[in-house]
Amino acid sequence: MNNRIPLYQKLIEFTKRDPISFHVPGHKNGEIFPLLAQKDFASILKLDMTEIPGLDDLHAPTEAIAEAETGAARFFGADHTFFLVGGSTAGNLAMILSVCRNGEKVIVQQNSHKSIMNGLELCNAKPIFLAPEYDQHAGRYTNPSLSALHQTLQEHPDAKAIMLTYPDYFGKTYPLREMIDLAHTYNIPVLVDEAHGVHFSLGSPLPPSALKLGADAVVQSAHKMAPAMTMASYLHLNSTLLSKQRVAHFLQMIQSSSPSYPLMVSLDLARYFLESFTKENMEGALESVQRIRRILNQNTGWHVLEQSPSDDPFKTTLQINPGYTVREQAALLEENGIYPELTTHNQLLMIHGLLPFQSEKKLEKTMKKINEKLKKDANHATIEIGGLFTEKTKALALSYEAMNERSVKKVPLRDGVGHIAAEAIIPYPPGIPIVLKGEKVKQEHIDGIEHLIDQGIRIQQREDGLKIFSEDSSKESQ
Predict the structure, then answer these.
(1) CA dist 241 → 119, 260, 350 (Å)
(2) 190-193 and 217-221: which strand pairing?
(3) Distance of alpha carbon 397 from alpha carbon 403, whole angstroms
């Protein structure tokens, strides 16, 4: 094991010198700050430095940052690792921009994060979308099938990359290695959004990481399951099919020229935490998971969904029982100070940390309180959302270039059926579009959106109505 935490150690060493600041940031090592918040921020502001001699430069690292990135690459099993301070969004954008030029094809899992859709638009790609399969047991769309990818590659062997998500938001995995091996027979790189799988690097009994399975580029949100700060992520490269220089070029365009040192240090520390994680730590955490699942399962309004051995054990899905709604269940939890990670039309997602849960007795008491309240008669029906991805593969109805030439108008939501959407409709979380920008709107889309709204799910980029492209080609400012 590597005991070095180079960036953290360098920064602590620097602060111990009690430096005098004649440089940015303006809080001057915490000396200038609103008094009411100074105590809360004091320790972190001392670490909030800038690129002064000895502290290296994220966009041209040669010292402590370079050593920290090298240490991360070694631990995760990558040829090179980039520290990201713009979240996995920055990594997804850089991956796509580095492999795709104007008008080139990219095969994309359709239920991908919105950042991937934004990347496709930025490089004016020609996306070929792979529809996910509907998992009846899980009650949601999961991943594309191997056979669908095989057919798509036969039809589009000139694609520049394949973009997949592994695991999904709920921790469900699938046979990714077979997809990667198939893509490599066409000499096509596989880019993986592994935002929710940074801890897979710990090995068995967790699922294997996308890097271990042979992916060419992998983005991981260190802040989702490892103890890094929000927005801190990794981008790993492990391929000769990608250009490290092009990825670095786009990262310096996408990310701030003044990256946050606390965020970068937290990436160094997150790697150290994972590398220090013992077998005993894993056993203790997994035992805690089982206890929490048993407590959560003693509820009238939901039941804990059984997992496959290949899924992430730290994710627990609560399936709403018939006669109850997600909205009322989520409200009861929030009233008692319990906040799920994600609410869908029929499920709640609970994420356990990598160490034993510290409020077990409080949770058990709260669950009993909630259950007593739920014993009243229920008069609701749980509605399933299916039929959204009826085509195995598809392209957008308009190219991004053509979209830029079309005028846009707003219509009532139900009047959008049959028209081409001029905006994505995105429940957040998880940030996966139900309707893509440039996609023809179907009745199934509208039904699903209205049901989500009725359940209290927040829809991004939606006011009253839906933006659609007009049939004419006259450009109109918005």
Answers:
(1) 19, 31, 37
(2) parallel
(3) 10
CB contact at 8 A, 210 and 197: yes
> In this structure, what token pair is assigned to residue 143?
């991943």
Q: What is the pTM of this model?
A: 0.89
Order across the sheet with 233-237: list the strands: 80-84, 233-237, 217-221, 190-193, 162-165, 105-109, 126-130, 393-395
Residues 366 and 323 grouped into a single domain:
yes
Q: Which residue intervals of 340-386 are DSSP H helices?
A: 360-374
Structure tokens at 381: 């029906």
| Tokens standing for residue 241 | 């099919």
Q: Domain limits at 185?
A: 6-276
Digit-coded pLDDT (tens) for 177-219: 999 999 999 999 999 999 999 999 999 999 999 999 999 999 9
User: What pLDDT, in 10s, does the model give residues 363-410?
Assistant: 999 999 998 887 765 555 545 555 667 677 889 999 998 998 899 999
Q: Which residue has the tokens 């880019």?
A: 191
CATH value at residue 288:
3.90.1150.150
Question: Which tokens sit at 69?
Answer: 């990135």
CB 462 within 8 A of CB 352: no
Strands 162-165 and 302-304: unpaired
